[in-house]
């Protein structure tokens, strides 16, 4: 009887001392509640929590709190295809001088390895970047933009002062179409200048996928946008019902990523008209992005006539004063001259 008591006591002691101070002996009856499956194997895998990103409305892994990065991207034919555009949440396409357009690409949910070719700043692009509290990236500047950057109107990195260090020249293209920057160098430059890299921009209103599938309006399977007489900057969008996204082409060539070959795929296309004024002999523009005006919002193969407004530096499509939600995904914004206007410059089929 004594031997039986000693044996039982030793087993109990071993069970207790075999556990760490923070562990408890589990009742087998509670295995399922304590992460053990019915085969006796511990279930260690748990899905990483996903965050809905503010500019795309898409849930994906990550904390979603990183600061937006706004990059000036060259759109001269000698700069195509560009790097990084497929990963931009929003791209703004506006005239820089004459009939040559340039892009402002806003990155927040994704960060490509490199982006470019990077081109020079204009004041209205700076204003758009400011609306997202972005870190602004450019290589060069107009006289008006130079003053804004010198006054630290926005946090920025300018390739004029980092050429060959943070900004790198590629050998297979000629200047000014060969300046690139990596996101690793953007982070390095931000740290050198004590810029914050946290702080997500305010979110746009977004539809659910189910709501987007029920959108109505005029059929918009193909959209053609003209910026003037230079056909090299004409834009066409084609809707793919399989992917529920638009592919973009420029001068008859699909807009793809130089490094990966992936096409730009868009869930939202916003086309707006704004007053343009030529301000110098170089053909540089002053573009009114504050007064509002007419526009088209195109989603899921459908087009709606909207107005646009500027609220705190950001452009929103509205109907009867109410902000129109975006479909989940990436967005492209075409800003075209008020003369001849949207009715003359845009064709929708």
From TrEMBL:
It comes from the Bacteria. Residues 55-195, 224-333 form the DUF3048 domain. Residues 25-48 are annotated as: Disordered. This is Lipoprotein YerB. Keywords: Lipoprotein. It comes from Cytobacillus kochii. InterPro entries: DUF3048_C, DUF3048_N, YerB-like_sf. Pfam families: DUF3048 (PF11258), DUF3048_C (PF17479). The lineage of its organism: Bacteria, Bacillati, Bacillota, Bacilli, Bacillales.
């Amino acid at each position: 009887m004594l031997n039986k008591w000693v044996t039982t006591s030793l087993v109990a002691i071993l069970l207790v001392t075999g556990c760490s101070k923070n562990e408890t002996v589990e009742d087998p009856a509670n295995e399922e509640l304590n992460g053990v499956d019915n085969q006796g194997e511990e279930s260690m895998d748990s899905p990483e929590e996903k965050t809905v990103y503010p500019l795309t409305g898409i849930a994906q892994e990550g904390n979603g709190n990183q600061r937006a990065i706004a990059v000036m991207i060259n759109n001269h034919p000698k700069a195509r295809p560009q790097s990084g555009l497929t990963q931009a949440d929003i791209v703004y396409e506006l005239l820089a001088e004459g009939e040559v357009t340039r892009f402002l690409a806003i990155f927040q949910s994704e960060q490509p390895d490199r982006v470019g070719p990077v081109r020079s700043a204009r004041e209205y692009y700076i204003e758009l970047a400011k609306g997202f509290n972005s870190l602004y990236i450019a290589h060069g500047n107009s006289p008006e933009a130079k003053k804004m950057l010198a006054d630290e109107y926005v946090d920025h990195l300018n390739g004029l002062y980092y050429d060959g260090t943070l900004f790198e020249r590629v050998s297979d293209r000629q200047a000014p179409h060969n300046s690139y920057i990596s996101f690793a160098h953007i982070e390095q430059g931000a740290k050198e200048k004590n810029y914050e890299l946290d702080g997500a921009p305010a979110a746009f209103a977004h539809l659910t996928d189910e709501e987007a599938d029920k959108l109505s309006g005029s059929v918009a399977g193909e959209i053609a946008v003209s910026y003037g007489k230079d056909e090299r900057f004409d834009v066409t969008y084609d809707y793919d019902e399989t992917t529920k996204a638009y592919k973009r082409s420029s001068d008859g060539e699909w807009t793809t990523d130089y490094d990966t070959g992936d096409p730009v795929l868009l869930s939202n296309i916003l086309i707006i008209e704004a007053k343009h004024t030529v301000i110098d002999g170089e053909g540089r523009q002053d573009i009114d992005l504050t007064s509002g005006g007419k526009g088209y919002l195109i989603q899921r193969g459908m087009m709606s006539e909207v107005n646009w407004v500027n609220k705190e530096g950001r452009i929103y499509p509205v109907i009867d004063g109410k902000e129109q939600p975006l479909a989940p995904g990436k967005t492209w914004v075409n800003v075209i001259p008020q003369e001849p206007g949207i009715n003359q410059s845009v064709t929708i089929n």
